[in-house]
Amino acid sequence: MIGRLNHVAIVVPDLAKASAIYHDTLGATVSAPLPLPEHGVITVFVELPNTKIELLHPLGEDSPIQRFLERNPDGGMHHLCYEVDDIIAARDRLKAEGARVLGDGEPRTGAHGKPVLFLHPKDFCGTLLEIEQV
Q1: What is the residue range of 88's domain?
Q2: For residue 61, pLDDT beyond 90
Q3: Which among 22, 44, 113, 119 has the fewest CB atoms less than 10 Å away?
């Protein structure tokens, strides 16, 4: 059901510093910051030959990743995103298998302009998963 790994998301306390590390130190191509008010984050994508790294920073105090950053002031890995062909079919299959879909269970538009859903980390070895329709 799942396809390729789309990205690994890392919450960072300083988006400019993290972007510079990936660009200047590691030599990666780094996107401009993209505010996503509907998700409460600012995101930067680091392009790699086989996947992407998504750097996440809170957008406002009500950001869903603000608590993560309070518990992990240096930042850290937040979630993995896998591609799926049909997000509704994937959601329905996952729910039938007992997986919990976060939020209202309806896909929202993600940073790539495509439908996404998040899956409860307790159902996936302690890792928050995002699925994105491609």
Answers
A1: 5-133
A2: no
A3: 113
CB-based contacts of 67, cutoff 8 Å, min separation 6: none
Average confidence (pLDDT) over 67-84:
97
CATH number assigned to the domain comprising residue 106: 3.10.180.10
pTM: 0.94
Q: Does residue 132 carry a catalytic annotation?
A: no
List phi, psi (to 5°) of 19. -60, -40
In angstroms, rounded to a whole number, what is the distance separating the alpha carbons of residues 39 and 42?
9
Q: Which of 54, 83, 130, 132 is catalytic?
A: 130
Name the domain count of the chain.
1
Q: Where are the beta strands (DSSP E) in 59-109?
A: 76-84, 108-109
